[in-house]
Amino acid sequence: MNDIGAETWLMHGSLLGWYWNRKILPWDLDLDVQITEKSMQHLSSYYNMTVHRYELPGSGVARDYLLEINPNWASTSFDDVDNKIDARWLDMSSGLYIDITTLRYDDHAEREEGVKAVVMCKDGHRYSTSNILPLADTTFEGVAAKVPSAFATVLAQEYGVSALQTAVFAGHRFDVVRQEWMPLLASERDVRD
């Protein structure tokens, strides 16, 4: 999205996958990224419902993606549970998608609680600005990406510290040598059930 003026970084489940091995978690069905409110305004004004062709470098395979902006993206209400996702990139051949949430200043925290430099997204997550910015350069699935500067703090706030330590989850075991989440063997599943 940098090509169209929107700095993007990994968040939520995709950030957790990145933490473990720089890959998508095998049980995760989508990707999660975040952008600033200014970037979302830009996308909403100029790119809503546009199709973009992307070729994974060196693959020779190109896919078309539709950028769909939620008409309620600017709402900051936590009450509308159906509108937590502000936009999506939709793979037009497979239907798979990338969820986009907007990071914005938390006016309520500053006005009501006197806390400055707090940002939030409308799924209820709140962060200190210094935990997100500056963004750090990295790779994810072999492609250049960005992550929050204090990624471990962000992940611990969202998922708990155990998500950064527990190597067995969702029918998988993290193999440290292979750096991969491997399906549990039948014998391992029997012990865990």
UniProtKB/TrEMBL annotation:
Q: Which Pfam families match?
A: LicD
Q: What GO cellular-component annotations does this UniProt entry give?
A: membrane
Every copy of the LicD/FKTN/FKRP nucleotidyltransferase domain together lies at 7-109
Q: Which controlled-vocabulary keywords does the entry list?
A: Membrane, Transmembrane, Transmembrane helix
User: Quick check: keyword Ion transport in the entry?
Assistant: no
Give the location in the cell.
Answer: Membrane
Membrane topology per the entry is: Single-pass membrane protein
Is Zinc-finger among the key words of this record?
Answer: no
Which BP terms does GO give this entry?
Answer: glycoprotein metabolic process
What is the name attached to this protein's record? LicD/FKTN/FKRP nucleotidyltransferase domain-containing protein
Question: Which organism does this sequence originate in?
Answer: Cladosporium halotolerans
